[in-house]
Amino acid sequence: MSKNFTSGLIALILGAIYLATAMQLPDVKAGDAIGPRLFPVIVACAVILAGAALCIGDKLTSKKEPVNWNFVQDAGVWIKIAVTMVLGVVYGMVLDSWGYLLATSLFMLCATLMINRGRFVQNVLISLLFPAVTYGAFAIALQLSLPRGIIENMLPF
Amino acid sequence: MDAIFANLAIGFSTAMTAYNIMWVFIGGLLGTIMGMLPGLGPATGVAILIPITFGMNPSTALITMCAVYYGAMFGGSRASIMINTPGDASAIVSCFDGYPMTKNGQAGSALAISAIASFIGGTIGMFFLIFLTGPIASAALRFGPVEMFSLMLFALVATITLAEGSLLKGVVAMGIGFMLSTVGIDALTGQMRFTYGVEHLQDGIDFLVVMIGVYAICEVFKNYKALDMQHKLDAKSIGKVWVSWPDFKKCIMPMLRSSPLGFFVGVLPGMGASIATFMSYAMEKNISKTPEKFGKGAIEGLAAPEAANNSCAAGAMVPLLTLGIPGSGTTAVMLGALMMLGVKPGPILFSQYPEIAWGVIASMLIGNVILVVINLPLAIPLVQLLKIPQRIMLPLILGMGFMGTYFLNYSAFDFILVMGCALGGYIFSKLEIPLPPMVLALILGGTTEQSFRNAMTLSDGSLGIFFSKPISATLIALAGISLAYSLLKRRKHAL
Known about the structure:
Chain A is mostly helical. Chain A contains five helices and no strands. In chain A, α1 (3-23) runs antiparallel to α2 (38-60).
């Protein structure tokens, strides 16, 4: 599929879901002439129309530019993106309970092992120094609240 | 005139404290570093550095962010000059003559004129900013919901039409931005919208979460392809970072011509520094008696876009500070960070908090001086940072981005949103859907909808109200002209 057609298709799907949800909004007009539904409906219609125009325009033109997803050639990139996303979400979930220093050290270790392959000592150093420096700068110097987590009693500061 | 000087005096009294000057220096230095690293650029730099402003008072936070922005503008061309790889889109033009100068053994002169032109462009832009902000802010105080809606409409249409690429994709991007802005409790009726039963979405989507996702984390995704890229840099061959008088003389007029051009381009929403730099380069090449030297190391071909770039940054502050409308991705990120701190830029900022508004303007003048001081003697040590490989930089950017995400709301759910936005941004880049309209619509969405609904309530549901008020009618006409011009231009281009 071409870039324009894919963009149009995404717009059509998003617009349709958004329009369907907007149409279910109750028609409340407390001190408001048009209520909370009209603006989203206008937005949805604009997106659907633009999406349809992109799809139709693509079908009518001979100049089609395919999307370079490169799932096979850039498999490594896509895997890294997927792993980063999982790591990011897990990091967010454990940050409060494990504490900033521990969670960030482990996150940085995983991230550096994936991105900076084959340099274990360098990666361990980054994983220890980054959380220590940022904790010192933000939690100690700037007095911002960062979770201390399960190692709270072990921290000297 | 007296009022301007009185306001500037207030501004300097805010900016000239040791604490604020320290943050101008730190912000400027960090911004220079962020700006010069290829693939980052000012928007990503400001997004990554948002956490450093948490815990600061609003004046210092805004001063620091402006220093980061300005620093990134100063630093953007370092990589263009040294390794022919622009730090961001606005530094592309600096490659045209900056890198040939390096190849001709004039890297020191190129780095020096880049810093000096940035300083001159920034200073001229600041003077325009000083004299324009007051009148614009005063006029904007009289804006009601009708004028506000028309202004937002004009800003959004201008962003779509002036941005490069497909107009329809711009509309799609803007629509997605509006969709995200409507998630959460409706401010006028208290009705829950588009939360799909997710409790965390009740307060809406924090646009800084989106910014960190689409700029900082998405940049990491894009750079995964070039992990092993290592730039070859011979710092010893740079020589003395200074510019000779004959070379400087050649650059005076190009800098003086490009600075006003850059400023006025910066004022327009959606134009951005890349357009300003291309326009100034083209203008100088057309005017030059020796246009054949452009592209082969003409010093004026580097000075002109550098001056335009920095005066454009000052111009972009005009709609942000006076109207609360960000003119670029970077100013959009700054606006988000400010709203997070409880400061809403706009005309009221100048009347109610002059010490913040004018403090920022004064700090930019100070910052300009500090940045030229940083960028001339420290040019050689700073360019050494270009040797840091991507595989070291990327985990650090991830770490900073995630820390910023956590500081926003201390919510694990924001990490899911950030990762979703980063993936969305990556898909946008693959499909060539422009980001600025989405970002602008997300930020302005709430105000646009409220202004529209308030105006419709005033007119009992008649759209005629938008054409019955002169300012509103003019803005709508300008939006229409911008759209028509863009359509004609693209059609001509297609033929």
